[in-house]
Design brief:
Mean pLDDT: 78
Low-confidence stretches: none
Distance between the termini: 163 Å
Shape: elongated
Helix content: 10-25%
Structural class: alpha+beta
Strand content: 25-35%
Oligomer: single chain
């Protein structure tokens, strides 16, 4: 067979294969576009829902998502109405069971308390509240300062860390954060503690309490922190001794004493110096 004819046939086969592939892709794309995509209607937030909000019908809407429903999603709005929000939900976000309080628990701060935990209120000022930066979700250590009942006299004030890595549930009278993200002065801070920690915190409230802000990612608990007393702060220091000028005592000039020498009819007097000045 002529070599030229073979080459022409091979080129024709390649071109035919490429054209067939292009036609297949075009037809497949049109078929997929014409085929209806499976979607699911789920309940979503019609507006931003803040922590502690009790959901009403006006707060809900439905959105379509491709594929099956997400795990823990709510398909019926009746399952969400009347339940409290325990984590901020933003507009258009599907509402999940894990973001809502159990049925019948209502809203507000109580709905955000996990089982077995307690919310303990601590009265603070701007300094104790770390200048207003203690906001819900932050982590703090609790320090107490006072005079131990069995301490020796004149031992001074003692400071001790009694709680570490404690979550802040709310700050101030409103459990919501400031809309502009600015720190706000608070009067009451609610801490999430165990029943045993709540007892310690109640006793500490009779003394001076200080909240220490910590990095939320730093969850390490120090095994034992010794207390610090006022005397430890000034250990190794002594009060400076005032400089006093030493004056030399003024000594009077020695007085001479004299000796009278009688030699016959002549009399002479000899004088000698002496420290005592005696004659």
């Amino acid at each position: 067979m002529n070599r030229r004819l073979v080459t022409i046939l091979l080129i024709a086969c390649v071109v035919a294969g490429i054209c067939s592939l292009l036609v297949y892709r075009i037809v497949q794309g049109r078929l997929q576009a014409a085929k209806p995509m499976l979607t699911t209607q789920v309940v979503a937030a019609a507006s931003d829902l803040k922590l502690g909000t009790v959901i009403t019908p006006a707060d809900l809407t439905t959105v379509s998502i491709a594929g099956g429903p997400p795990k823990d999603s709510i398909l019926d709005p009746k399952e969400a109405i009347g339940r409290g929000v325990i984590s901020d939900i933003y507009q258009g976000e599907p509402i999940l069971e894990s973001r809502l309080a159990p049925k019948g628990s209502g809203g507000g701060l109580a709905a955000t308390i996990p089982t077995g935990m307690r919310a303990c209120a601590v009265r603070v000022d701007e300094v104790v509240g770390v200048a207003g930066f203690v906001t819900p979700g932050m982590r703090v250590d609790v320090l107490v300062s006072g005079n131990p009942p069995n301490a020796p006299p004149n031992s001074g004030t003692v400071t001790k860390t009694i709680l570490q890595n404690i979550q802040v549930l709310s700050a101030g009278t409103d459990i919501q954060k400031d809309a502009e993200g600015k720190p706000q002065q608070v009067q009451v801070v609610n801490l999430l503690v165990t029943p045993e920690e709540a007892q310690s915190l109640s006793l500490a409230s009779q003394q001076k309490i200080q909240l220490v802000l910590r990095n939320p990612t730093d969850t390490k608990i120090a095994p034992s922190l010794p207390s610090t007393s006022m005397s430890n702060l000034f250990a190794g220091t002594t009060a400076p001794t005032p400089h006093r000028a030493v004056r030399a005592a003024a000594h009077p000039a020695p007085k001479p004493y004299s000796i009278v020498i009688q030699n016959g009819s002549s009399t002479t007097t000899e004088k000698f110096p002496t420290p005592g000045g005696q004659q």
